[in-house]
Structure formats: structure tokens, C-alpha cells
Amino acid sequence: MAEVQDKVKNLADKYGRERESLMPILQGIVDERNYLSKECMVEIARELDLSAAEVYGTASFYSFLDTEERGEYVIRVCKSIIAEMKGKREIVRTLEDLLIIKVGETSPCK
């Protein structure tokens, strides 16, 4: 817990403790830890005097701010209709074949 408090405090010292400092602090935690734990989000809320729900709502809105542990490498594929028209499914299948992985069934890439 002390490690999380120190990291959040250092980021708050760097970026400030205003509402607009939330995104750079969230990104700083993700850069170091690869995801935002509940413990981190509660500590950020405390440090910035925000509600935990506001911090979680912001973190969960952005796909690049993971709220669950992830692998070391993340491959993101655009979900737009234009990407679909330009061969997104073929790209995903190729990545699956090359990397010997399987995109989750709930993924919008399927």
C-alpha cells in the first residue's frame, strides 16, 4: 500500500492535484504497473479529492487505461466500420495465426 501511495503522491506532485491532473496520473500508473488496480484508483481519488466512482468511471471509459491485469504486450485493432471494410477480420486472423493466439469470443473483432 505504501508503494502505491508513494507513486500516486509523486505523480500528483508532478502533475498537480486538480481534476485535470487525473488523466496524466492514471497514465503514469498504467505506464509503470500495466494496469490500474482498485487500490491505485482509491488512492488517486483520495489524493485528488475526487470520488472513487469518478476515478473508476474515467479509467474504465478509455480502452488504453486497463483496470485489469494484462499481458506485457497489447495489440489493439480499430473497431470502426472503415476498418471492417478495409479487412480488419483478415488482419485479426493473420495475427492469430502468426502469434498463435485467439481473440476472445466477446471481442468485437469476431
Note the overall shape.
elongated
Proportion of residues in β-strands? under 5%
Total DSSP E strands: 0
Residue windows where pLDDT falls under 50 for at least 5 positions? none
| Biggest sheet architecture | none
Our measurement of the CA-to-CA distance between the termini, rounded to an integer number of angstroms, reads 39 Å
Q: What is the helix tally?
A: 6
Q: What order do the helices and strands follow?
A: HHHHHH
Mean pLDDT: 90
What can you see in these coordinates?
This protein has helices spanning 2-15, 22-33, 38-48, 52-61, 81-85, 88-99. By secondary structure, it is mainly α. Helix 1 (2-15) packs across helix 2 (22-33). The longest helix is centred in the N-terminal third of the chain and has 14 residues, at 2-15. The protein is elongated and about 45 Å long. The mean pLDDT is 90.
Descriptors for this entry?
elongated; mainly alpha; 110 residues; single chain
